[in-house]
Every structure is written in C-alpha cells, then in structure tokens.
Amino acid sequence: MPKMKTKSGAKKRFRVRGSGSIKRSQAFKRHILTKKSTKNKRHLRGITNVDKTNAGSVKAMLPYA
Residues 13, 24: contact at Cβ < 8 Å? Predict the structure, then answer.
C-alpha cells in the first residue's frame, strides 16, 4: 500500500505539539492594518490552538504528524 500524502497547504499552516494539540497562527493580521486598533493587532500576535471541533479534520490532513 502506498504512503499517504500530506496536504501541502496544511503542512505550511499547522504544527502538532508533543501533547497532540495543533498550533496555528492568527488570521486578520497581514494587511489593511491601518483601520485596526493597536489593541486588536496586539492580541493577534503569536500562535493559538486549533479548536477541538476542527482538530480531527486537521489531523486527517497531516497523517504522519
């Protein structure tokens, strides 16, 4: 049986932590930043977890992670 392929878009966007949770970067911080408040942009920094309702589909896209 051939190896399963990883979705290339998913491998660029998600990483699986040692605990099994999946980390992702925040959306809405790439452009059109002038109309967003400083507080909003500050809270969009860093990384966050994928929600548990979406974690199963993300893990299906990353079969070897």
Answer: yes
The domain that holds 46 is classified in CATH as 4.10.410.60
pLDDT for 26: 96
Distance CA(40)–CA(28), nearest Å, equals 10
Contacts of 56 (CB under 8 A, 6+ apart): none
Q: Which residues of the chain carry a pLDDT beneath 50?
A: none
The secondary structure of residue 16, as a DSSP letter, is E
Domain total for the chain?
A: 1
Q: Give the residue carrying structure tokens 């309702």.
A: 53
